[in-house]
Specification:
By secondary structure, the chain is mainly beta. The protein contains two helices and eleven strands; from the N terminus they run E-E-E-E-H-E-E-E-E-E-E-H-E. It has an eleven-stranded antiparallel sheet. It is elongated, with a radius of gyration of 19 Å.
């Protein structure tokens, strides 16, 4: 896909606006190196980008069979050695194993803490809602609470290959702490 942008280059600053990469990605921002370390202020937006194509770059450790259309924004600010970010993402037409869903994720990121806080909510087409509230450290350790409501058990049994189908709905509140 072509990359287009309006770029300004000065003796102490680089800025860009109207940046577009294909039909699904856009960006604007500045990099100011008038003092050390350089300071970033940038926004990257996705508009229905195909997750399967971008997942190896965006989330290399994620499940390889996760699919859907990604929209949302990532804001990066601060000095290069202490960069921080905030994001708000939406995954439409999501699919993982036999689950079809839509999901939203919001969080704050920095190199020292990882993603904290992190909230993820998903609605499954087969029935049910899942919410996670917690954090993920830079070394991929997750901690938080998962709430499941009106979860249809049939797709779970299918994805696990159970010989007899599961039936009914389930709800639970789980506390988790461990590596992803």
């Amino acid at each position: 896909d072509p990359l287009e942008a309006a770029v300004r280059w000065g003796s102490r600053q680089l800025s860009w606006s109207g940046a577009r990469w294909g039909q699904h990605w856009s960006s604007q921002g500045t990099l100011d190196w008038s003092a050390a370390p350089a300071v970033w202020s940038a926004r990257v937006k996705a508009d229905r980008a195909e997750l399967e194509a971008w997942q190896p770059l965006l989330w290399p450790a994620g499940p390889p069979d996760l699919r859907g259309m990604l929209s949302g924004s990532l804001d990066l600010t601060g000095p290069s050695d202490n960069l921080q970010g905030g994001f708000a993402l939406r995954l439409d037409d999501g699919r993982w194993k036999s689950f079809q869903f839509a999901a939203d994720a919001k969080g704050r990121w920095d190199r020292a803490s990882g993603i904290k806080p992190l909230t993820v909510s998903a609605h499954l087409k087969s029935g049910g809602d899942i919410q996670f509230s917690g954090s993920v450290t830079p070394d991929h350790f997750a901690q938080g609470t998962v709430k499941v409501a009106a979860f249809n058990l049939l797709p779970l049994g299918e994805s696990l290959g159970f010989p007899k189908p599961l039936g009914g709905v389930a709800g639970a509140t789980l506390t988790l702490s461990g590596p992803l």
